[in-house]
Amino acid sequence: MESALAVTRFLIDAATQIAIVGVGLSIFLLLYRVIKGPTNPDRAVALDVMGITLMALAGLVTIILVTTRLNDVVLLIGILLFIGTIALAKFIEKGVIIERNMD
Asked: What distance in Å separates the CA atoms of residue 3 and residue 6, rounded to the nearest whole number?
């Protein structure tokens, strides 16, 4: 029984370390796309995906630390990412985020 738990723990640790390397590489590639993106919508999509990968990174750190305290951080990043995506899409479409009618 103990050996099965040790093997399972080893597999979880190996998988999370490989996933962290993959997510880290993804973040650097997305950072390149945000900086060198050919158009503004491409930059917006890359920034949105970068936020999702940050959520994944926080989830992986939660698995490594064996805690649930970072779940709130993942939810907060998701909420802020959603609001930011809506604001950026509105800015790309209309050129302003908050419309002011001074009639």
From this structure: 5
Residue 90, H or E segment: helix 71-94
The token pair at 13 is 């640790």
| pTM for this model (two decimals) | 0.79
As given in the structure block, the two tokens for residue 61 are 């750190």
What DSSP designation does 38 have? Answer: S
Q: Which amino acid, residue 84?
A: G
Q: What is the pLDDT of residues 75-100, one digit of tens each?
A: 999 999 999 888 888 888 887 777 77
| Dihedral (CA of 15, 17, 23, 29) sign | negative
Q: Which residues of the chain have pLDDT under 70?
A: 102-103
Euclidean distance between CA atoms 34 and 43, whole angstroms: 5
